[in-house]
Structures are given as C-alpha cells and as structure tokens.
Design goal:
The structure holds two protein chains of two kinds. Chain A is of the alpha/beta class. Chain A has a single domain, classed as HUPs (Rossmann fold, 3-Layer(aba) Sandwich). Chain A is built from six helices and 15 strands. In chain A, a hairpin with a 4-residue loop joins β3 and β4. Chain A is globular, with a radius of gyration of 21 Å. The relative contact order of chain A is 0.17. By secondary structure, chain B is an alpha/beta fold. In chain B, about 30% of the residues lie in helices and about 25% in strands. Chain B has a seven-stranded parallel beta sheet. In chain B, β9 and β10 form a beta hairpin. In chain B, α4 packs parallel to α8. Classes of the chains: A alpha/beta, B alpha/beta. Chains A and B meet through α1, α3, α4, β9 and β10 of A and α3, β7, β9, β10 and β13 of B.
Chain lengths: ~250, ~325
C-alpha cells in the first residue's frame, strides 16, 4: 500500500499572530512552525500501517523551502520519503490541485490529510482533493483499518460517531482518534539522523489558478476586562448573565 | 439566480442551523435583490422554512438518502444549484456540511469560503469575513468565480423570523452508483442527549474537579442551565470522561452562547477550541489562571462550594422567570 500524508506547515498554537504589508500578509517573524496537529495524527497512523502492514509512506507539503524543516521532522517520525511542491499556497483549491497531480502521478492508494489546518482553518483541501481525483472520501475520520483494498473507517458526527465501509483509493480528512495523543511520536536521535539521508524531492508546481484570495487580515477588537464575582454575590452573577450577557 | 441554501435536517426534523442559514440567506438575498431557495433531503415539514424568509423549497425525498452520504448529498445540492441557475450557495458548519462543502464547490467550479462570519463585507467585488488562526484573527477573502459557496460559521449570525410564503416543489436529482461507494454500517449516537454541537450552553470541567466521582457537580449545573457537558483534554486523557466530551484544539470545537469552565486553567490549546463561544464564565481556585484573561465573567474560589450554590441560584432564577 502506498500512502501519501499531506503535511501543513503551521504556526504553533502558542504563537502570537501578527500581520505585515498593510495587514495583507502573515508575519512569520519569530514564529515557531510545527506539523499541523490534525496531520500529525494521520502521519502516526500511516507509520503504523508501515510497521504493521508494510506500507510505504510519503509525506508532501506545498510550500517554499522554509517548510523543509517540517518535512524532515515528518521523516524523523518515520515517513520513508518526502516531496515538497515548490509553490506558494494561495487558497485551498490551489493546494488541492498541486496535490491532485502528485496523487495521480504517484499512484497512491491512501491519502491522509488533516481535516483542517491550524492556520486558516479552512477544511477544504481533503474534500477538494477527493473531488479532483475521484477517490472515495471520509472526513473527520477517527478510526481507519485497511484489509486488502477494503476499508473500515469511523467518522465523527455531531453527537456521536458512525462506522463506514468503503474501498481504496481513499482520501481521508483525519483528526485525533486516528491515533490517540499518547501514541504521537517525538522524533528520537536515530530518527533524526536517518531523516537527514532520506529523499526529499522538490517538484515544480503545475499551473493552477486560485478561486479566492485573501484581501487582508483583521484582528478581533480588544476584549473588555473580566468581571469578577465571589461566592457571596452569585446573585449578581446570575443577574449579569441574564440582563447584560443575555445568555440565560 | 436565486440564492440556494441547504437546509439540513436530522430524522426529518430541521436542525437549528437550517433556520439560521435561512435567516442569513434572506438578508443576503435582500442586499442582492434576489430570493432564497432551500433544498431539503427527506425533511418532513418543509413549510417551517417560510417562517425565516425562504421563498421556494426544492423537496428531495429518496430512501437511498436516508443515511447521510457526502458525495450523494453534494450531488443533490449541485444539481439543485444548476437547476435554479444559482450564483451563491450557502451551507452551515455542521460536521456533515463541512464534509460535503468542498465537493459542492469543485462540482460547481465555485470559489469556496468557509468559517464565514457576518454578512458579506462587499458584494462587488464579493468579499467575506472569515475566522482564521483559531479565532485569533479574521481573514477578508475575495471570491472571484461566477458561482460562490459560503460556509457560515457556527452560531455566528442568529435566527431571525421573517414570514414568507414558500412554494414547494418535488425535486428528483439523478444519482449514480458511484455516489454510494461509501456505505454507512452503523451509527453510534446517544439518543436524547443534548450534544455539544447543538447546545446553546456548554458546562465543561477540568482537573480542578479532582476526580470522575465529582462529575455530578458539572452535570447538575448543566441540567439547571439546559446545557451539554464537556471536559478538558487532561480529563479525557485521564479517562475520567469519554473522548467525545473533550473540547479544545484537538477535541470538539465549541461555539455556544455561554461556555462555563470549571476547574480548567485555560491552556492556549483549550482556548483555541472554545474561543468562538460568545460569553465565557470561568470558575477557578487560582486567581492567576490564564483563563481569566479571556473570560467575560469569573469567580475565584472553591468549585465544590461555588458550583452547587450557583446551580441553586440558576434554578431559582429559572423558576422565577419561567
């Protein structure tokens, strides 16, 4: 089984979010970048398939040279090889088109993406990739097993979960549950050393046009200070929740 | 040219998001000088939609669609949009709608903006405001295509009544076998329990509760408030509560009117997942807990003393204001 894991290179959650160029661009100055958490659950599941079922795992990112450190980390976690598509991602569709090209030429059986990235929270790429390639598609996937070409997947739904059966080729929008948090791997020294010699191929982008563009960013208005109450004036709290906040 | 909304239902009954989307669609239609058409799948009483400004309902009734299937449902919406000559398709942000939205967008060659908050910033050029960076910023996005798909963020607009007389039309889209390559084997859903996705109030507990045996405190307060219950990541990792209740960055997102956090310090990953909630009430023993920085209301002190007392006060209040 050939698995492709799509990796987004995103600012760590603890990063301060700032913009430059008249609020038109994200300011990456001083920002720590990480593997998108939803992708990391998928990557770990893919490495499990590699160890248990002999799968070959390729990781891919659409981005500039600065994302290679993130791909190396994915290799250190256990992926066999990496691809960077040399393009500046503009919107979900532009990324999905680049990935569709990789999927078609690489003949992957299973593609695991995160259900959304931590930066733009768009949740677009896995579904668009499925629509562009015609593969089966399971989103919000919290459990995945493959037997031959038969797939059993569990999907999170509002208020519960459902079990689905389908077949390869398959695109997955994954999240926590594909593996548990405790199963995530921190790269060890051996992994980091071997990652240095694994193949990281840089491919030129295929021509693709975006359908949408970011005009600018805005920051939310500053929040007013918290109003504090004590155990002795909870009546006032209840009254504030009713009269002021209007939530009860 | 009408705007098309997908009015989601579950077991034949419309979800609240269907009415929110209709309200939103009505307002956008007014600004564009057009009307609102809703497409429904196996919904029983479609006339309910006329309370919220819908002018026409395309009613799909098909046993093959009794279980949700993203590809088939996306196909239904796509064909409805083509039949109506729609330029703007509106979807909500339920798990199901987030699943089918990209399929609809690619199918219609439409530009797609998700997490939209508020009415379009401008209609020519077409620009919308979207949540980004886990609510730490907004992204103003311009959609250049002729046909556009918007996903309205959860609980971001509200439900507004606007009476209309909706015409009803049976609609039978053509579905093919490839639409059903994914089969639903079983659904595991606690019947009758208010879910985090549907609730207007969520009461959430953290490690400050000291153990699973104390969860009655959270449940009682939730029941007084008519709320769903949730928990922080450490609590689900410790196995005190099921993973399905974990809210935060890697858990379920929360976008309620009121979020009550009891004994949760407010790690940045937790805040990222609940920040879309409008009002936050934080109860914590530590006055320095970071959660107070993003809270609207706070109570410092012993949860074991505060929560039962607050529960009684809420019950009293509800009894007097019923």
């Amino acid at each position: 089984m050939k698995i492709l894991v799509c990796i987004s290179h995103v600012p760590d959650t603890t990063s301060k979010i700032n913009f430059t160029n008249g609020d038109a661009d994200f300011d990456s100055n001083g920002v720590q970048f990480v593997i998108n958490p939803n992708d990391e659950f998928g990557l770990t599941r893919a490495v499990w398939f590699q160890e248990q079922q002999g799968a070959n795992v390729t990781v891919v990112n659409v981005g500039g040279p600065e994302t290679e450190a993130t791909l190396r980390k994915a290799l250190a976690i256990g992926a066999n090889e990496a691809i960077r598509v040399n393009a500046t991602p503009t919107d979900g569709l532009s990324v999905a088109k680049q990935l569709a090209e990789i999927v078609k030429t690489g003949g992957y059986d299973l593609v695991i993406c995160g259900k959304e990235s931590l930066d733009y929270n768009g949740g677009m790429v896995p579904g668009m990739l499925a629509a562009l390639t015609g593969a089966n598609f399971v989103n919000s996937c919290i459990g995945l097993t493959v037997d031959g070409t038969n797939v059993k997947a569990t999907r999170e739904i509002d208020g519960g979960k459902e079990t689905l059966s389908t077949s390869l080729p398959l695109i997955v929008g994954g999240q926590k549950g594909l593996v548990e948090e405790k199963d995530l791997r921190i790269p060890n020294m051996r992994g980091i050393m071997t990652a240095r010699t694994k193949a990281l191929q840089v491919l030129e982008a295929v021509g693709s046009e975006a359908n949408t563009k970011t005009v600018k960013f805005e920051k939310p208005a500053p929040k007013s200070a918290v109003k504090m109450f004590t155990v002795d004036n909870l009546d006032e709290l209840v009254s504030a929740l009713h009269n002021e906040a209007k939530v009860i | 040219m009408s705007i098309l909304i997908y009015a989601e239902s579950s077991e034949g009954k419309f979800k609240k998001v269907a009415f929110e989307l209709a309200s939103y669609g009505k307002k956008v239609a007014e600004s564009l000088g057009t009307t609102v058409t809703a497409v429904t799948v196996n919904a029983a009483n479609v006339s309910e939609l006329s309370k919220y400004g819908v002018d026409k309902v395309l009613k799909v009734t098909n046993d093959k669609l009794s279980a949700f299937n993203a590809k088939a449902y996306a196909d239904v919406i796509k064909q409805a949009a083509q039949k109506e000559g729609t330029k703007l398709v509106l979807l909500s942000s339920t798990t199901d709608s987030l699943y089918l939205a990209p399929l609809v967008a690619v199918g219609l060659n439409a530009g797609y903006a998700s997490n939209v908050v508020g009415l379009p910033v401008s209609t020519s050029p077409f620009q919308v405001k979207r949540n980004a960076f886990s609510m730490k910023a907004f992204n103003i996005t311009e959609i250049a295509t002729d046909v556009k798909v918007l996903g309205l963020a959860k609980n971001s607009y509200g439900v507004f009544e606007s009476a209309s007389s909706a015409s009803e039309e049976d609609f039978a889209p053509s579905l093919n076998d490839a639409d059903f390559n994914i089969k639903t084997e079983s659904i595991d859903k606690t019947a009758g329990k208010l879910t985090i996705a549907d609730a207007e109030v969520v009461v959430s507990g953290g490690r400050g509760l000291k153990g699973p045996e104390n969860w009655g405190l959270i449940e009682n307060l939730a029941s007084a408030l008519g709320a769903a219950t949730a928990c922080s990541k450490p609590v689900s990792d410790l196995g005190w509560r099921p993973h399905s209740e974990h809210v935060g960055q890697t858990g379920k997102p929360v976008a309620t009117n009121l979020y009550v956090a009891v004994g949760i310090s407010g790690a940045i990953q937790h805040i990222a997942g609940i920040n879309a909630s409008k009002v936050k009430l934080v109860i914590n023993a530590d006055p320095e807990a970071p959660f107070f920085k993003v809270a609207d209301y706070g109570v410092v002190g012993d949860a074991f003393e505060i929560v039962p007392k607050l529960t009684e006060k809420i019950k009293e209040f509800k009894a007097n204001n019923a």
